[in-house]
Design brief:
The complex is a heterodimer of chains A (about 400) and B (about 425). Chain A is an all-alpha fold. Chain A contains 19 helices and 2 strands. The two termini of chain A are about 40 Å apart. Chain B is mostly helical and about 425 residues long. Helices cover about 70% and strands about 0% of the residues of chain B. Chain B is built from 18 helices and 2 strands. Chain B is globular and about 65 Å long. The chains are: A mainly alpha (about 400), B mainly alpha (about 425). At the A-B interface, α10, α16, α18 and α19 of A face α1, α9, α14, α16 and α17 of B.
């Protein structure tokens, strides 16, 4: 019944009455309740958020009575949270609201999410094949430094991109050798990669640039302009301008991240190679028995994860936020957020991407909320970690890792 | 030379169940060989990096000599020949100051290891201890100094134990992997601390509202210095608490029922459960005790050396001390004495590279701290690959017994 054809044969009404659907709808409505009170809709009365929130909570209660307790209570919580946030928003001044929730929030959310998506998808490949990759943070940092170095010395951002991918893959190869052939503990190995990356990037940044900043004229990752959408409208008004401000001028890597999610989904779930990868992560012995080269698959996946993490890293230094600079330890935990996004997304490309978007949103919002108070934003930075903690605790659904994740495999 | 008995093959050790089993097997198989070979490996590799980037093998050697001198350990080894005895002595006191929290975070990681868990969150637990000690150290000014210090230390330690306990509870009740939960808790602690002392935060200092830095702990709550100038970052009595913690660690683990149960769960949770040991209780307990060690490190640093906390500080103590604890514990093979030695190694490396190269004439001083990270990373990398080291070590023995050529075949058959 879980296949596409099975779902299509199912009458629509049954699917709508499914507690899973109502629960998800409740959560969405809860989010919508809060959304009503902020621009661009910006209802200035509390009525609408409260009404929608109550509907969301009702859906939640209905879902609880139908047996999906966690999802149902999640929807109830979303409804109540929506009401609360809606009331808060209507209380605050319209000017503050408009500066916090404008189209650039969307653009920034996508921007903050980009490195997370790359890291999370990379981590997903590695872990789907059965190798835990705590070293994402380090591989990202390597990509950030060597990418900007390559762009500086090579003269163009394409060289930077290639250098970052190459170095990321190389670091991942070293890690893979330790994790797969030497059967080192994978958490220990990943931790070592993180240390090494901090040391190596810091060391060579000083060595190669004599402690001076990287020159200003380094070639940056270009932005893609969507035709017909003005990126910087002089008097933003209406839907087209809103779209233009939000997605009209995004980095090429942001779009690449979007493509990556689809490709990763197709590769992992719709191709023979994806099946092999998943087999290696679930039951390497069985995979070996049917003739799959477990070591080769794992090496490939770990190296791919390093390449992708490094591409996420280069976005930090060469993207619109980094502007061609490198700062000591500039990833500052983003690799771990990517790891969290992968776990929160339940080791699935779409889930990981959605989680990365959510975490990117919380970072963007943290920045925006500084119009209210500078400390309020800081607390928002905690959101990804708390949500992941809740997710692994199994309060809202349960995350299930690949069965052989983190277990070294020895050929017979 | 007699054969030391049937040692388990490294391949065997790598595959058997829990982390603790692995470590224990390696302990018997490798003794102190692996740590020593690892350190030599790591130092040689970092020497190669320095030699390659400075284009001089000699310079690279001088760099390591300077790190050694900068750590003050030359005062111990050559007390009479050094003309700058007082400087070396000062350096040694600073090295020991760095070592104090490293011993404790090392013990924290080691204790969790012994119960089969990887506490990667010692940094978060350290921060909790740090913040609680700062909060009470500032707020309860005027209390009797002894009571004040005791209260700060106990409260900080317990808070960190509870914080780490979250990971233990999640592991025991829903089976959430402690590596994931402790990483998340690390960053929760980091951002909470940033908020607490940030602009407008509850623990932000009173004098400069634009600076994201906490208040200084009141003079009454400061740990007295016993070596060096009082109040001028001398060595405070916290090191004795650290050394006491080493003894507590050893006694707790090897001479009490609690330690027996913790180790049993670490070796094989199923066997322990079959033997009537409450596995869940022990997982939570071990994680809380682990957090207590790390929290103690935080309180000692706050009441002793640091006295206030600043966000975004790239200072090694605040950002890295818990992570270096992993390297310390692994290098010390999760034993009490080993952890102590490992902490001294990394403490010396940290301060030695900072100070010894801080005034160096042969290498850019700002490279120094990064060299520490590289050595640290290499140590952890090679410690994790002890299978390789032991394999080389054992095949050396095998080669002695058998003519070359058959050794490789023998190894394949064993695998």
């Amino acid at each position: 019944m879980n296949t596409w054809t099975g779902r299509l044969e199912n009458p629509l009404s049954t699917r709508l009455r499914d507690p899973g659907t109502t629960g998800a709808l409740g959560i969405l409505l809860g989010a919508f309740a809060a959304f009503l009170a902020i621009p661009p809709i910006e209802a200035r009365t509390v009525t609408w958020p409260i009404l929608v929130g109550i509907v969301a909570a009702t859906f939640g209660v209905w879902t609880v009575t139908r047996g999906r307790r966690r999802l149902g209570w999640g929807a109830v919580a979303a409804g109540l949270l929506g009401i609360g946030l809606g009331i808060l928003a209507t209380r605050s001044s319209a000017a503050n609201l408009e500066s916090a929730f404008d189209a650039t929030l969307v653009a920034q959310t996508l921007g903050f999410s980009t490195p997370l998506v790359f890291g999370a998808i990379g981590g997903m490949f590695s872990e789907r094949s059965g190798v835990v990759n705590i070293g994402l943070e380090g591989m990202m940092l390597m990509g950030a430094f060597w990418g900007v170095y390559g762009a500086d010395k090579g003269g163009t951002w394409i060289v930077g991109l290639l250098v970052a991918a190459g170095v990321g893959g190389l670091v991942a190869l070293v890690y893979a050798f330790f994790a797969i052939h030497l059967r080192a503990d994978q958490i220990v190995g990943g931790t070592a990669i993180n240390f090494l990356a901090v040391g190596i990037t810091g060391y060579f940044f000083i060595q190669l640039y004599n402690n001076n900043p990287i020159p200003n004229d380094v070639s940056l990752l270009p932005n893609l302009h969507v035709p017909g959408l003005p990126a910087n409208p002089s008097n933003p008004h209406g839907f087209v301008d809103f779209l233009g401000q939000s997605i009209g001028d995004l980095s090429v890597l942001t779009w690449a991240a979007l493509v990556l999610v689809f490709v990763a989904y197709l590769v992992v779930f719709k191709t023979p190679i994806g099946l092999r990868i998943r087999a290696c992560g679930e039951h390497p012995r069985a995979a070996d028995t049917v003739g799959i080269n477990v070591y080769a698959i794992r090496y490939g996946c770990v190296v791919l994860s390093g390449v992708l993490a490094a591409l996420g890293g280069i976005y930090l230094s060469e993207g619109p936020q980094g502007n061609g600079t490198f700062i000591f330890n500039m990833t500052n935990g983003r690799g771990f957020i990517a790891l969290a996004a992968m776990i929160f997304g339940n080791w699935r490309p779409a889930g990981a991407a959605a989680a990365a978007l959510l975490f990117g949103f919380s970072s963007a919002l943290a920045l925006k909320l500084q119009v209210y108070s500078s400390s309020a934003g800081t607390l928002f930075q905690i959101l990804p970690y708390v949500l992941t903690l809740i997710a692994v605790a199994g309060v809202i659904g349960r995350t299930i890792a690949p069965a052989a994740d983190g277990k070294p495999y020895a050929k017979q | 030379m007699t054969d030391p008995g049937p040692s388990p093959s490294p391949e065997e050790a790598a595959q058997t169940g829990t982390l603790a089993t692995r470590l224990a097997l390696k302990q018997r198989a490798g003794g102190i060989v692996v740590p020593i070979v690892t350190v030599i490996f790591a130092l040689v590799m970092s020497w190669i990096i320095v030699a390659a980037t400075q284009h001089s093998a000699h310079t690279a050697l001088v760099v390591f000599k300077e790190i050694f001198d900068g750590s003050g350990l030359n005062w111990v080894f050559h007390p009479s020949t050094n003309t700058f005895t007082s400087i070396s002595a000062y350096n040694l006191s600073q090295t020991l100051l760095q070592t104090t929290p490293l011993i404790l975070t090392g013990l924290a990681v080691a204790f969790a290891f012994r119960c089969g868990m990887f506490n990667i969150g010692a940094n978060g637990q350290y921060l909790v201890g740090l913040m609680v000690a700062n909060w009470l150290g500032v707020d309860l000014a005027g209390l009797n100094p002894f009571l004040h210090i005791l209260l700060c230390i106990v409260a900080g330690t317990l808070a960190a134990a509870a914080f780490a306990g979250i990971a233990g509870v999640l592991k025991a009740t829903v089976g959430a992997h402690e590596v994931i939960t402790t990483i998340m808790l690390n960053w929760i602690a980091y951002w909470t601390a940033s908020w607490l002392v940030g602009v407008g935060g509850p623990l932000q200092n009173a004098s400069d509202p634009t600076a994201p830095i906490s208040n200084q702990v009141s003079p009454g709550a400061r740990l007295p210095d016993f070596w060096g100038k009082q109040g001028f970052s001398g060595l405070h009595i916290g090191i004795f608490l650290s050394l006491a913690a080493v003894v507590v660690f050893w006694v707790l683990l090897n001479r009490t029922t609690l330690g027996y149960e913790v180790r049993a769960v670490g070796f094989n949770p199923d066997a322990a459960a079959y033997g009537g040991i409450n596995v869940k209780k022990n997982l939570i307990r071990a994680m809380a005790i682990s957090g207590a060690f790390a929290g103690l490190a935080g309180t000692l640093d706050m009441l002793g050396g640091a006295q206030n906390y600043q966000i975004g500080q790239l200072d090694i103590p605040f950002i890295q001390v818990g992570f270096i604890g992993i390297a310390v514990a692994l290098l010390g093979r999760t034993t009490a004495v080993g952890t102590l030695i490992g902490a001294l190694f990394f403490g010396g490396l940290l301060y030695g590279s900072f100070h010894g190269l801080g005034s160096s004439s042969v290498i850019d001083p700002t490279l120094a701290s990064n060299l520490t990270y590289i050595v640290q990373g290499l140590v952890v990398l090679f410690i994790g690959a002890d299978v390789l080291i032991l394999y080389v070590w054992n095949s050396r023995k095998r080669l002695r017994r058998k003519p070359p050529g058959t050794a490789a075949k023998g190894a394949e058959a064993a695998a």
